[in-house]
Amino acid sequence: MITAQEEAKPTHNEVIKTAIPTLAGNIAATVASGSDQFSADDQQFIKFHGIYQQDDRDARKVSKKFIMMVRGRIPGGVMTPAQWLTFDDLSTTLGNNTLRITTRQSIQFHGVVMAGLGPLIKRINESLLSTLAACGDVNRNVMASPAPAQDNARAAMIGDVHRVVAALAPQTKAYHAIWIDGVQLNLDDPANKDFVDPLYGKTYLPRKFKTAFVLPPVNDMDVFTNDLGFIGIVEHGQLVGYNLTVGGGMGRSHGNAQTYPRLADVLGFLTPDQVVAVAKAVLTVHRDFGDRTDRKHARLKYVLQERGVDFVRAEIEQRAGFKLAPAKPFQFTTTNDSYGWHQALDGTHFLTLFVETGRVKDVDGHRMKTALRRVAEKFGSIEFRLTGNQNVILANVAAADKAAVTALLAEHGVRTENQTSLLHGGSMACPALPTCGLALAESERALPGLIDRIEKLCGDLGLGAEEIIIRSTGCPNGCARPYMAEIGFVGKAPGRYQLWLGGNASGTRLNQLFKDVIKEADLETELRPLLARFAKERNTGERFGDWCERVLLKEQVAAATN
Fold first, then answer.
1. Most buried among 9, 124, 341, 428, using CB within 10 Å?
2. Using CA atoms, how far apart are residues 270 and 548, in angstroms rounded to an integer?
């Protein structure tokens, strides 16, 4: 029997993946030609190599200059000082002199021209990191809780992370041929023309696939927003296994009710030795049942929603070769990073540094980029860890070095305590304008100012000590996970945003659309009455998102039904 999906026409992405399953395209030839841009088809292929073609939208009225965004693949967000220095060097010589920490524990380079791609990617690989599968229809960078609060459990978890990374990596030889050897694969060679990836098949996945590991009670990975999640279960200080989550995702499209954010379901418990088999099983369920006719409907979350949890669990168990055990109890309390100095169980110290909107740069009075470079140069045993909240952790700091690290940072205007306010500290933003081609409104450049204005409102209303999670994106794709925030701004047009309210501190509840359009200029007018009601009506200790869920959003539903 032929299904409706089988009768439907596959997307263009599916057609070109079938035609060139090595993902080589004509990338190497284009780089060698001296051109400043890739063809439309190759723009899809380069994503698998960790590259997006962009342009500076601020400069479009003058000239359209093509530039590239390059994203590293950094499992668990862990980097050595040498790797950090490599990335810092490359951002200076081949990028725009900034490092952009992503919401998935990676680093993006912005402003890279075509001629810089080869040298940049080659040096990243020489540092023993990669850009392969940082984007594209494959498993992307695998996230993992970075803070060493539970040393033994985290060490075991990181081992599982690397096993999953290796197991889910695409096997095409095109990446190394292009970026290491500098050659264009012969696409007529049967070995290339008929290549079939042993895991992904000939057409890879219908859409991107995101994986995260997390250690309760801190949900700093927003694990329920991922296609595949592993919630670590620790007993007597040891990691005994994971609760499996499947089917989360943030992306949606304005005006398309068939697209929506969704939280993953908890399907059961598995032991560490079962992790790889389950990861492969979940990925192949997405491969085999995901929609290949509509990329806006192609994420694994729609398979869960439409076929049901029982169907997906049965498929996973059949493919993995064993039954999942019942899920074990767990509890999340926060999604935020804990800033400042902390001591690990092994006696070393770690420092969590706030990075506004994830942009590591030097500005007057706050030269964070130079400061972190100096730390990497001087303290070779320190481990750099990127967080899912776009911040940096300096881990494995010896007790004897703590004061020196603090002093070095202070020399460059980087504080280790009282680094930022509560509202800024719980915020995230996507890059948006001027580089992202999908952006409808500002995000990274606008959010700090919006938060300053919200802080003024809170101060006026007696809420100056209030913590509120605020996130912003320039479009509805949700890269900064705005649909989990207590206050979420989602771009609709220049200076105009949707307002989403009602997420919670633990990252276990979606917020809801409160207002379809607010003007940036009207922020105070829109939020003042809401915050004033909250200050007056809240229960003792109740957060803004919880009050919105309990009172405001229920009122909205009631009004809509009357």
1. 428
2. 36
Residue of 447, 465, 213, 467 whose CA lies nearest to 338: 467
Extended strands (E) in 361-437: 362-363, 366-367, 383-386, 392-397, 427-429
Tally of residues, the chain: 562
449 in the same domain as 410: no
Let me know the angle formed at the C-alpha of 126 by 120 and 132, rounded to the nearest 5 degrees.
Answer: 65
Question: Does residue 1 register a pLDDT over 50?
Answer: no
The two structure tokens encoding residue 454: 């919200």
CA distances from 548 to 334, 429, 514 (A): 18, 22, 10
The kind and range of the H/E element at 233 are strand 228-235
* 1 domain-assigned: no
Q: Domain of residue 429: give its range.
A: 424-561
Residues 556, 433 share a domain: yes
How many structural domains comprise the chain? 3
How much is the CA Rg of the chain, to the nearest whole Å? 23
Cβ atoms of 220 and 335 within 8 Å: the answer is yes
d(CA 98, CA 368): 10
Pairing of strands 512-519, 99-101: unpaired
**CA 398 – CA 476 distance, rounded (Å):** 43
Separation of alpha carbons 440 and 435, rounded Å: 11
What is the tens place of the pLDDT at every residue in 169-208? 999 999 999 999 999 999 999 999 999 999 999 999 999 9
Co-location of 490 and 442 in the same domain: yes
Element (H, E) at 70: strand 66-71
Active-site residue list: 71, 140, 208, 210, 430, 436, 475, 479
Is the bond preceding residue 198 a cis peptide, omega within 30 degrees? no
CATH code of residue 357 = 3.90.480.10
Displacement of CA 52 from its chain's centroid (Å): 16
User: 200 — phi, psi (to 5°)?
Assistant: -85, -15
Q: Does residue 535 register a pLDDT over 70? A: yes
Tens digits of residue pLDDT in 466-475:
999 999 999 9
| Integer angstrom CA distances of residue 114 from 56, 81, 241, 503 | 14, 27, 45, 41
In 412-457, at which residue ranges do the beta strands (DSSP E only) sit? 427-429
Please name which of 296, 226, 230, 302 lies closest in space to residue 263, comparing C-alpha atoms: 226
pTM value surpassing 0.85: yes
Q: Is residue 148 domain-resident?
A: no
Which of 549, 507, 556, 554 lies closest to 222 in space, CA to CA?
507
CA distances in angstroms from 379 to 81, 98, 231, 384, listed in the order given: 8, 22, 32, 11
Q: In whole angstroms, what is the distance from residue 292 CA to residue 11 CA? A: 6
Domain end, chosen from 358, 390, 418, is at: 418
Residues 429 and 403 in one domain: no
Instruction: Tell me how far CA of residue 96 lies from CA of 67, 110, 194, 375, in angstroms.
Output: 10, 6, 40, 21
Q: What count of Cα atoms within 13 Å lies in the side-chain half-sphere of residue 527?
A: 29
